[in-house]
Amino acid sequence: MQRSLKTTAQFEGFGLHSGKRALLAVHPAGAGFGVWFKRTDVIVADQMVGANWSNVVHSPLCTQLINEAGTSIATVEHLMAALAGCGIYNALIEIDGPEVPILDGSAQPFVRGFMAAGITDLGQQSLSICILKTVEVRAGQAMARLSPSAMLEIAFSIDFVDRAIGYQEKTLNMSNGAFVRELCDSRTFCMQDDVDVMLSRGLALGGTLENAVVFDDGKVLSPGGLRHQDEPVRHKMLDALGDLALAGAPILGRYEGVRAGHALTNKLLRGLFSDPSAYALTPVTRSMGHLLPGMGLKKSDIPQQV
């Protein structure tokens, strides 16, 4: 049940926060390799950064990884969501810059690239992280929780003052390609006021109306409007899957997020792995395959944008 790509998938674009162009290649890897980033532009330090929860450092706007030598890679969440949503947990990702390209602000371009490259079963059994008891973390009004479930479920709620968003909630069973069908095309979003503040601070330098949904006083400024009426909460679920993928193996459990962000989901994983009684590493049998994200995935599952 361990899977990787058949051939290399390549992507190119600007980083949302750095504004720097990067070339990114996702290469096939063998069973047990895991997911690793390789900074090809780094010469004097360790180029390799593991896609692991323990390497996450505080970053208010994205998920950023850093190794002991100080080599970092930012905005990994959409790429990690695409890998997990396609059932890929073995890959070498080469990139020549500090930030994963934002592309259209969703995970859909990565999913399309992976499907075009092909996904292969490596012929070895994989492990899942089975949640045995509830683990919960809070920060103010935000909450993130993992609790026992036979498959990965994600439930999320958000509440924004802007009337174009307001209160939204959604729950999905993530089995059998649900991520690709329901979430992968949902884009990152923000308020125009926040954009103005970030730009004044030298942040979001690569942001445009083409790679994020921008809201302003009840209006959607991005051309074409929303892809889903509840696109914001769907994107939050996408982010959560990407951050959970840093656990290193598929999670069998229910994730609940209330106004949760990248930092809180990482704090949740740290809480989970600090308590050995809260989880078990369980072999994934073929009869369990239908419970995992990405299994049974078809190209027709990818949403078609108009």
Description:
A hairpin with a 2-residue loop joins strand 12 (135-139) and strand 13 (142-147). The protein is built from 6 helices and 21 strands. The two termini are 35 Å apart. Helices cover 20% and strands 30% of the residues. The strands form 6 sheets. A 5-stranded mixed beta sheet has the order 2-3-9-4-5. It folds into 2 domains: 3-121, lpxc deacetylase, domain 1 (Ribosomal Protein S5, domain 2, 2-Layer Sandwich); 127-301, 2-Layer Sandwich (lpxc deacetylase, domain 1), CATH 3.30.1700.
Q: What is the helix/strand order?
A: EEEEEEEEHEHEEEEEEHEHEEHEEHE
CATH architecture type of the largest domain: 2-Layer Sandwich
Please give the largest β-sheet: 5 strands, mixed
Rg is 18 Å
Uncertain runs are none
Shape: globular
What is the average of the pLDDT values? 94
Helix share bin: 10-25%
- Which secondary-structure class do the elements indicate? alpha+beta
Which fold name is given in CATH as the topology of the largest domain?
lpxc deacetylase, domain 1
Report how far the terminal alpha carbons are from each other. 35 Å
Kindly give the count of domains: 2
Strand content: 25-35%
Number of strands: 21
Question: Which sequence of strands runs across the widest sheet?
Answer: 2-3-9-4-5
CATH C-level of the largest domain: Alpha Beta
